[in-house]
Amino acid sequence: KNHPQLVEAGAVDALIECLKVKDDETRFNAAFALNKFAMAEETKVHVAKAIPWLIAVARMLRELLTCTQAVSALRRLGTVESYRLDMVEKKLHEVLGTYQDVNNIETQREAASCMCVLSESVQNRKPIIDTPCLELMLNLAQSEDVEVARMALGACANCAEDKKTHRLLAERGNAMHILAFLMRSRHVAVHREASRATSNLLGTRATHRLFLESDGLRSLFLVARSKDNECQLNASLIFRKLTPNLDNHEAIIAKGGLEPLLGLVQLRDVKIQRQAAAALRDIASNKDNKVTFAQEGGLRAMIALARDEDMSLQIIACGALRHLSLSSRIKRPIVEEGGLGPLFDRAMQEPLNLDLASQVTATIANTAENADNQITLVKDGVFGPLNHLSTIDSPDIQADCSRAFACLSANRENQVGVFSATEYRTIFKLAASPEEYCARDAAITIGNLSVIARNQLLMVQLGCLVPLVSLLDSEFVSNQKYAARALYRLAANASNQKKIVDAGGLRGLVALVNSPHADVRQFALMTLCNVCAHPENQPKVVQVDGLAPLIHMIGNTEESEECARYAAMTLCNLATNPVNQLHIVRQKGLAPLISLSGHENPDIARYAGMTICNLAAHRMNRLPIVRAGGIVPLLRMASSDKVEVQRAAALAIYNLACAAANQIPLAIYNLACAAANQIPL
């Protein structure tokens, strides 16, 4: 109580003068008194003026008791930030570095405590490590005295918070080996601080190898099983520092690291759970460890964590499930272990969190790739979450929603009576996305569902043609391909053929016939073939200059036989229109058709011949067909084993024979063929 009065009376100045005298006992008493004055907050400001003299006394190791009192006073003053910085500026840490041979426990305690206090300031950490203070710190950390070891380790942990100190700590001080050993101490205070220092030091990836070589995992597992809350937190932090490095995963799993890590994530402490869960998520991302992770309880732990009330834990857990769901061997177990419930709950959760929604959507999409899951997902009510998630303004989330719909619609059991008008509208909206993968997968979904006649009519009624026709002009090849695929299936229904053309699809389809990509050309031609079966659409193809690319396609069978076949089928349909019959011949389609009719593929030859048959129905084409050599394919068709082909050939020959100028060539060629036994008389 009398400290303030003494200080106000000038006691500090008097004591400073006493520190300067040569009498040992006087200096001791002065240092002792200043130490007492430094205990009270209100007197520290006065005692601070003695810092230079206390540092000077701290150098006098021959007066060990006096040094101890001086260091103790400095340690107490060091609780003030500005004083700590001043002490390091005045080289106190260098003075402490000379204490390496001091064996007095009290002096060691004060020195360790003083280093711990000084290292609380960020600016002091690198200077401390740059001096022999580093060696003193690590030597004292191995002391048998718990208090000495604890404070020295505290100083080490503080310094290790600065990454600039890591190289010196690891290389010059061999700190990682020492810390790994001390983490196995039977004293909680020691292994608590050792684990904190280790956690900080592992912030530099180069120290990971040193930790593993020092048998650090064994120490880590022991600390993780501690009942001390701080030890548990430090252990979770160490795991969190190690697991982003894929090279560490094999060692962690091989030595049994999943068990203590799963134990940490089950503690009812959010700070510990977050770090442990993040470490588990990192391990789950490793493709080589996914199955082991799931089998050893990681899958169940993540599903349980996804139910937690803390959103950060939900995000991490769903992120881990997302990684696991990439493995084909785990997609089904996620559903069997009850993972859909928390995923659906998180999908509908308010308020919205984009990260959480992204993890959930990707996980659902991944699990939907499994055929068995596709049925279970629908039965468990996946459409509600997907419809909700698709409304989120996020390209990634919408792309995953679209992917999920594509997978679900690929299963035949989901194609009839499963998708409602709500789902259809969601899919059509996704198909209108400017993002390639989102629109592509939505178009795939429409195409998958279009194999059912009922769906073909319903989807067109609900407005699927607008986004599909728009995708025909997309800059992305995949969008063009799957939009054309969906349209060709929709056009299989006669009721949709005119609607596709009325929606503006014809021009885009004709343009895609010239695509450099065979798949795109094929689907465009397949759609045109179906669309041109409708009489009202046939003249419109000529109006949009559609004949030229079709004729070009039948003349290039080397590029794609399938494309040539569908081009011939399309021309066959178009040639049922009298006006088109003339246009096809005038645009030089006759020669490639006659050439194609002799193709080794019977289907290609058949449709080319059928087209010639249709062209022969127009009287203006009869002479040009015979002059161009069209009799040969017709006679070949007449010998076909298929009645409809024979009928078409007979009708064509009849039509050609109606022209008087063709009768003699027909008779001559027929007799020549008969003589050669090529066709029956």
From TrEMBL:
Q: Tell me which GO cellular component terms the UniProt record holds.
A: vacuolar membrane
Q: Name one GO molecular function term.
A: protein-membrane adaptor activity
State the PROSITE patterns in the record.
ARM_REPEAT
Task: Cite the repeat ranges for ARM.
Answer: 256-298, 297-339, 463-505, 504-546, 545-589, 588-630
Q: Where in the cell is it found?
A: Vacuole membrane
Tell me the InterPro entries matching this sequence: ARM-like (IPR011989), ARM-type_fold (IPR016024), Armadillo (IPR000225), Vac8 (IPR045156)
Membrane topology, record value? Lipid-anchor
| GO biological process terms, semicolon-separated | nucleus-vacuole junction assembly
Which keywords does the record carry?
Answer: Lipoprotein, Membrane, Repeat, Vacuole
Similarity field: Belongs to the beta-catenin family.
* PANTHER family in the record: VACUOLAR PROTEIN 8
The protein in question is named: Vacuolar protein 8
Q: Give the source lineage, highest ranks first.
A: Eukaryota, Sar, Stramenopiles, Ochrophyta, Pinguiophyceae
